[in-house]
Model the fold of this input.
Amino acid sequence: MIFKILLFAGLIFSNAHAAAPAPSAEELLKSSDRGRGATVSLEGINWIADIVTKENETTNQAVYLIKCRGNDALAEVTSPPRQKGEIIIFNDRILWFYKPGLKKPVSISARQKLMGQAANGDIASTQYFRDYEGKILGEEVVDGTKTYKLELVARAKNVTYDKIRYWISKSQKLGVKAEYLTVSGDVFKSATFKYGNTIKISGTAYPFVSEMVIRDANNANNETTIHYKNPSEASHPTSIFNVNNLVR
Amino acid sequence: MRQLWFLALRNLSRNMRRNLATGSAIALGFAGILLLGGYVNRISNYLRVYTVYVMHTGHLALFAQDGFEKFQYKPLKYSLSHDAQLAIEKALREEAQVDFYERQMSGAGLIGNGRISVPFYAKGYEPLIDQRVQSHPEVQKWVSKGGYFAKGQGLWNYPEDLGALALSKGLAFTLGKKLVHDEGGDANVQLISGTWQGSLNAIDAEVVGHFNTGFRETDNSAIYIDYKRLQQLYDTESVGRYSIWVKDIFQTNKVAARLTEKLKAAGVSVEVIAWDEERLSPYYTGTMQFLHSLVTFIGVVLATVISFSVLNSTTMTVVERLQEIGMYRSIGFRRGQVSRMFVNESFWLAMASLAVGAVLGYAAISSINAAKIIYHPPGVPDGLQLKLVASTPFLFISGAIILTLTLLTTYFAVSRTMRMRVADLLGGTRR
Done:
């Protein structure tokens, strides 16, 4: 009798385990996007991106205050002093650059280099769920973390990358590694992510990215690190993301 | 001796029709060569002046060591720093053969009109040097349009703080900047690019002119701006290169060697390239090589036609005049004297034909220039006028070559006959 009960319980357990559905690529991307600042709050969030780039034996640094709300974002340079006040506005996938004294803002590409290995789109336009068609390729272990390996293909021409290989941790559902590919499929840079921050949205704490290290695939010495600091919920009026307000 | 020349002149009238035919071949051939020479003279000078002056190449281009190859993708490392510029300009001022020089910058980025941004490739010059170059006598003489501004004025007409810039016509169309600053439209644009240190930067600029690059591939992206504005955009005090114009073009290579040595001694390693080197001026050298091969081919064809015409005519004349030659020999003329008489006949014929050919050639050149024919060589959007410029040295050199060919051909035609015995000559039969 005991044997039958154990057998029955075992069958139930194994069936339950087998029935747990694997997450879809969309679910994984939505979840991992949240860890990098995408659409976690209706009113908006802030964080500081401290970008340090090492290239050709020189080191440069710039600090941006990022303000996000929905599909819009604004990145303003706070340091170094000579760049202070420079602004990049992200209106959905359209980017604008403005610096004090300029007569008109300039439309720029998300793919254009912002600094070192970091493209403009890397600092705030990070909505992979919105911008890419995802497909799970399999499972891999990355630095001891069990991950799903995804292939992302751009839905539009004006996104930051054409193709991405993206590894999302199975436990936290956060992106831990990415390889950025050219149209022909060659890796031209890669990135790793750490999640040492948390952000509280409406009382709920979510893990938030603390470091993104981007490396040139052709020269490992060329490296850009984005340190994410002080992520917090905020209320941003939509007017600050209106490019027409910049030159008034 | 004088008698031989006189006899030769009189003999010319003995077979007028044949001599007219031979003379016509020489005259028309020479006129053709003069036309070809006029075309090559014009094109080679146009290209030389366009390359050296209008394109701001200078007679010499001075780069940081390896900067010619590597400046575009590693500008920070392969540009000329502020200290290097001081040393270079000191050396340039001390070099007596240097007429004037210019600091230059170049680079790429995006140019925007407040709505869209498109890629640009900019060349940065010194506006006052540009003024000097555009008004240079060589440019006035050889580049008929007087520079490349299709609309607007040169940058030197505007204050530095305006940020004057000229757009290639295709780029102006793309950006909707049909009106330039002086026409009162919105001529404001923004240039944006990464600085040489790697951060993003942008500057304002004002469109004051439109120009043709001469090449369709670059007509949608080229801009021309004060090099100082590019320094602001790329956030640097360095320059990409110097262009140097020398007083005597034949001293170009010597000046290059002296500058390289002097700067090496001052601790500045540079690379000095002459304007006619293929890597600096590939369009010029490529076109000139093509022109030279074309001229050589046509020249050989014309020389062959003239030679065969003279050979044919002289051979017939000699055969007809065997008895006359025999008679000259029998009354004591030496073989050389008789040969010389025939050669002298050809000399008179050739000289008269060359004179007629020169007149015909110059008349044809004047007619073609007066017709103002426009043709469209590859990569020249507005076309070029088919203009021929006769060259006096070419006239004399090509005339001398044709004369020599005629005389050699005549000597060749009569030399075999001169070896015949007098009796056979008097018999009038040639074996």
Notes: Chain A is about 15% helix and 50% strand. The radius of gyration of chain A is 21 Å. Residues 56 and 245 of chain A are 38 Å apart (CA to CA).
